[in-house]
Amino acid sequence: MSAANAQEPSFRDSVDIMFNRAATMLDLPPGMIEKIRVANSTYTVRFGVKLRGEIKTFVGYRSVHSEHMEPVKGGIRYADNVNQNEVEALAALMTYKCALVDVPYGGSKGGLCINPADWEVDELERITRRFASELIKRDLINPAQNVPAPDMGTGEREMAWIADTYKRIHTNDINARACVTGKPRNVGGIAGRTEATGRGVQFALQEFFRHPDDVKAASLDGTLKGKRVVVQGLGNVGYHAAKFLSEEDGCVIVGVGERGGAIVNESGINIEDLKQHMIAVGAVQGFGGGTYVEDNGSVLELDCDILIPAAMEGAIHLGNAERIKAPLIVEAANGPVTAGADEILRTKGCVIIPDMYANAGGVTVSYFEWVKNLSHIRFGRMQRRQEEAFHETLIGGIEEITNKPFPPDAKAKYMEGADELKLVRSGLDDTMRLAYQQMSKVWNARKHEGVDLRTAAYLISIEKVASSYATLGL
Ligand code: NAD
After folding, report:
1. Are residues 362 and 340 in contact, defined by beta-carbon separation less than 8 angstroms?
2. What is the mean pLDDT of residues 107-121?
């Protein structure tokens, strides 16, 4: 995190400041705001693993922010700067995110202080399995109570190890696979989970551009086609978002910031080529499809239409907020704009599509995966061929009545029943559209009170959490 100002609030404080801004606009029973704001519990574990001839001690966390709905849900992050404050801030964001997009979970988050690059794969597996068993024996991983997912530094490989560790401890739990999401397909994962957060960013932007007044508020016009985009972080979220926006919506990716440098190219960066280069070389340096810039932070300040910080929290802070030129920021990462920077950007008229909405695609598809695991059947398996047969009958009837053949392209498209990937994308698109429509409505109705999209998102989610608590008798 590059925030370099002594007045910069911590990530945890930033989330609380943004929460408080909205909470004070709501008429809630006394004490309810405090109940929702605080983390219910945070468990710290220090465990040893014998590696390279000595016992290495690791520190991990699992924070439960709110259990107004169970299970609670939230990723596990591997990074050497993971700390309790960060995990609690991320857990709080999970509560608000799930409420906003109507995913029936409370909020949680986990983290392990580790740089995955320091360890061999078999060592990482032993560390992950030990961390998982520490959490499993306290029900901090459990299909009915607490369900992790990938986050920065983890992916489907780690989720498979966690699922297997749970299964070995709970040998007769028929729902064992639902103890974690983001798994590989062959152990209960779902089509479209790996791409889900980036895909959700794409769907969020598509929906934003269906609201011309909102687009105008960001001093933009038209559609996504031709919009100049800068992305920070070409990991899971940034890569998929940049790939889909450039390959499917006609956006031009003019800058990509990564660890160790950035690539800029006014005519557009080929994201797949850059990703393949990064996989082969381990860095963006030496990529032929653009100009290399050593100062990776400088891309955030490039002249562009849409800025997508997709790496880590605190990327836009008091030290650089004034110099940000993008009129529209999409927070693909969690907490990429500090509370101080948020105020500067709002004053400048910049529109921010907030993290709790923009990156909700991951938890949405995780929810689909969890439902799939509990129902023990892949989506589409029962009805796909039946739908195809029904469509075939209908087309046959139309052709018979009109005595004309159905246009071949339309026929092929209409005849194809939905497989799991299509259903997942459809469910995600629907979720992102509906959540944006709710936010936009509140934003436009309460602009005169200083409500922006972020405050609108908080207003909606705090009200939903408060009404769950009220129903529970609190
Ligand atoms: P990741 O580890 O796959 O990717 C992060 C990328 O950022 C890496 O390529 C890394 O090299 C790069 N990076 C790190 N520091 C950087 C810096 N200083 N400048 C530029 N690039 C830098 O992680 P991810 O899963 O893509 O997560 C990214 C963000 O999105 C995190 O804030 C995470 O909490 C959030 N998020 C992820 C998911 C998910 O499904 N993976 C879901 C919701 C939110």
Report:
1. no
2. 98
CB atoms within 10 A of CB 244: 20
**CB of residue 342 inside a 6 A radius of ligand 1:** no
What's the pLDDT score for residue 372?
Answer: 98
CA nearest ligand 1 atom 39, residue: 151
pLDDT of residue 474: 79
400-437 pLDDT tens trace: 999 999 999 999 999 988 999 999 999 999 999 999 99
Cα(393) to centroid(ligand 1), Å: 48
Kindly indicate the confidence band of residue 5, based on its pLDDT and cuts at 50, 70 and 90: low
Mean pLDDT of 227-233: 98
Given its phi and psi angles, is residue 106 left (phi above 0), alpha (psi -120 to 50 degrees) or beta?
A: beta
Which of 90, 259, 277 is the best mutation target for the ligand 1 pocket, counting ligand atoms within 8 Å of the beta carbon and taking the most?
259
Active-site residues, by number, are 109
Which CATH superfamily is 41-187 part of?
Answer: Leucine Dehydrogenase, chain A, domain 1 (3.40.50.10860)
Q: Which atom of ligand 1 is nearest to the CA of 237?
A: 26
Parallel, antiparallel or unpaired: strands 291-293 and 261-264: antiparallel
In the prediction, which pLDDT does 87 show?
Answer: 97
Cα(387) to ligand 1 centroid in Å equals: 39
- Residue 356: name the closest of 263, 453, 215 by CA: 453
pLDDT of 3 > 50? The answer is: no
pTM exceeds 0.90 for this model? yes
